Amino acid sequence: MRQYMPGCFTWIKADPMGIRIVPADAWIDPARPVARALVTHGHADHARGGHGQTVATAETLAIMGVRYGVAEGALSAPYHEPISIGGGVLATFLPAGHVLGSAQILLEHAGERVIVTGDYKRSSDPTCQPFAVTSCDLFITEATFGLPVFRHPPIGTEITKLLDARASNPDRCVLVGAYALGKAQRIIAELRAAGWHEPIYLHGAMEPMCRLYESLGIPLGDLRSIAGVPKTELAGAIVICPPSALTDRWSRRLPDPLTAMASGWMGVRQRVRQRGVELPLVISDHADWNELTTTIADVNPAETWITHGREDALLRWCELHQRKARALALTGYDDEDD
């Protein structure tokens, strides 16, 4: 563990509505509009419109432009380039490996280094830059899957399950429920890497973000809107839709769909039963237990703050490994559909 003589991070405040950077009068991922917000990524429980100024990576700003209409007051923060945000604070956006444009934010002030991770993962993802391990004094980490039971399989294993299910059911389409930002594009890119070069059909709600990813340089291959496609042409096809559409009336127009759901929560049997899916795919855009603990060890901070999920188990792990830690109580952070 890093040796550190306090200041005690008095300039960083964990408020129920977000992380406040006191000397800069700024917030990270605030739960309501503020004068200045630093945004880690585009998911709705971290990114919102209405801020006076929004500081984020160019990709996150583009995503927020599509989802929330953010345009005025936007300041692009390139990865690895420190920017002054006022009050003697430097902020550096570093890749988080969560979704396209996602960032950890390194804050430097009064000789102290603080990293706020937002959401992150350590496993490979062809649609975004990998997590950058960076030393700091205080590490603020998510804990969405902060229980030892959560150990996600390699994504290649789950993509093989998907392709095998499709091959075993040539007269059915495989309908995959996936979060519209990040998860859907990752599945498509992994299918392409696995050799699936046939058209992939999209529910209308998935199209804007997929097209945005392509415009930002992420190739996704032959994507087609499912609107107006005859039922007979969809036998054996792969269709991507929002999780809510799996049991919606919309799905009834498909040829006997084999329903799949891509989520880290698909490792929990109760969640699989709740969703009523035939093919659970354990594909997560968050760090699992091993990735969380490995990351804390790699970063090796003097202190760790834990938020956004199952704080107690990760707090206990820190205690057992003689690492100073505390759990935060922030509002507005949801499970998403991971």
UniProtKB/TrEMBL annotation:
Record flagged with keyword Ribosomal protein: no
Record organism: Novosphingobium sediminis
The name this protein goes by in its record: DNA ligase-associated DEXH box helicase
Top-level taxon: Bacteria
SUPFAM superfamilies: Metallo-hydrolase/oxidoreductase (SSF56281)
One function term, GO molecular function aspect: RNA endonuclease activity
Signal sequence extent: none
NCBIfam families (alphabetical): Xnuc_lig_assoc
Keywords annotated in UniProt: Ligase
InterPro entries reported for this sequence: MBL, RibonucZ/Hydroxyglut_hydro, Xnuc_lig_assoc
